[in-house]
Design a protein that fits this description.
The protein is mostly helical. Helices cover 74% and strands 0% of the residues.
Length: 143
């Protein structure tokens, strides 16, 4: 209990640890921004897409569940200053596996509501082109 209180006090002075993690990592910020844009690509935000986003945040990036709403708020503020091309530019110099991971996460969110809208496919196709990733790389299981 004392540790939880100390964490709360530190969070007040230092900010949310999940938001700090995202803010301190431009590549992570760019990836989460692209994932969030995929959620919005079809014009509706479904519960299943948000659940997939939250799970990716937790499992792939180690963002605590308690921080995810604050991270979304940060991305909302940050997103107005960054377009998709600028976000993708963060990935061009990364290794191919990291780029494939972004594409797989985007596809996972697009499929989460069991409907692939044309706008979701366009965003994914454009992202794959910019990242120089084959569509086959998105459907292949990770090795």
């Amino acid at each position: 209990m004392a540790f939880a209180l100390l964490d709360q006090i530190r969070s007040i002075f230092e900010g949310d640890p999940g938001v700090r993690k995202v803010a301190d990592d431009p590549v992570l910020s760019a990836e989460l921004l692209m994932l969030f844009r995929m959620i919005l690509a079809d014009g509706t935000v479904s519960e299943s897409e948000m659940a997939a986003f939250r799970r990716i945040c937790r499992e792939a990036f180690g963002i605590p569940e308690a921080s995810i709403d604050s991270v979304i708020e940060y991305l909302n503020d940050f997103g107005y200053e960054t377009n998709s091309s600028q976000a993708i530019a963060q990935f061009r110099d990364l290794d191919v596996e990291r780029r494939k991971l972004l594409a797989r996460h985007m596809a996972e969110i697009a499929k989460a509501d069991s409907q692939l809208a044309g706008t979701e496919m366009q965003l994914l196709r454009r992202t794959l082109d910019l990242l120089d990733i084959s569509p086959a790389d998105v459907v292949k299981p990770e090795s």
